[in-house]
Design a protein that fits this description.
Lambda_DNA-bd_dom_sf, DNA-binding, Cro/C1-type_HTH, 64% helix, 3% strand
Length: 137
C-alpha cells in the first residue's frame, strides 16, 4: 500500500470509529490522552499519528492495530459483548476509580430500566403478539 493510501485508510478508519460511537474530537482526544487539535490533525490528514500511539488508539476504539492500519478489512473488536446485568453482578466494580457498592449497582439497574423501559416494553409486546399469532396459525 502506498503512503498516501495508507494515510487515507488510517484517517478514514479513525473517523469512522469515532463517528460510530458518536464521540466528539475533543472527547476522543481526551480518551487517547492527546490534545484535540492534535487528534483533529490526524483526521484531517495534516499529520499522521506516531506508531507508538496506535496501540492506545486501538484500545480506545476497542479494535486492533491491524484494522487501523488497513491490514484487516473487518473491524474486529478485542472484547466480547457483555451483558450489563452480568457486569453489575460482579463483586468489584469501579467507576472512575470509585468502587460501586451494592446499593450503587442497584441504582444503576433502576436508571437503566427507566432509560430503556419503553424500548424493552415495546420488544416484549412485539414478542408476545408474535407468540399469540403463532398459536392461532
Amino acid at each position: 500500500m502506498k503512503n498516501k493510501q495508507f494515510a487515507e485508510e488510517l484517517v478514514n478508519r479513525l473517523k469512522e470509529l469515532r463517528l460510530k460511537r458518536d464521540w466528539t474530537i475533543k472527547y476522543t482526544a481526551e480518551k487517547i490522552d492527546i490534545g484535540a487539535s492534535m487528534y483533529s490533525g490526524y483526521e484531517s490528514q495534516l499529520r499522521l499519528p506516531p506508531m507508538e500511539l496506535l496501540p492506545k488508539m486501538a484500545e480506545v476504539f476497542d479494535t486492533t492495530t491491524d484494522y487501523l492500519l488497513g491490514c484487516s478489512k473487518k473491524d474486529e473488536t478485542t472484547r466480547f459483548p457483555t451483558d450489563i446485568d452480568w457486569i453489575l453482578s460482579q463483586e468489584l466494580i469501579n467507576y472512575r476509580g470509585v468502587e460501586l457498592t451494592y446499593k450503587d449497582k442497584e441504582n444503576v439497574k433502576v436508571l437503566l430500566e427507566m432509560l430503556l423501559g419503553n424500548r424493552v416494553e415495546t420488544i416484549n409486546d412485539v414478542s408476545c403478539r408474535k407468540e399469540a399469532n403463532q398459536q392461532y396459525d
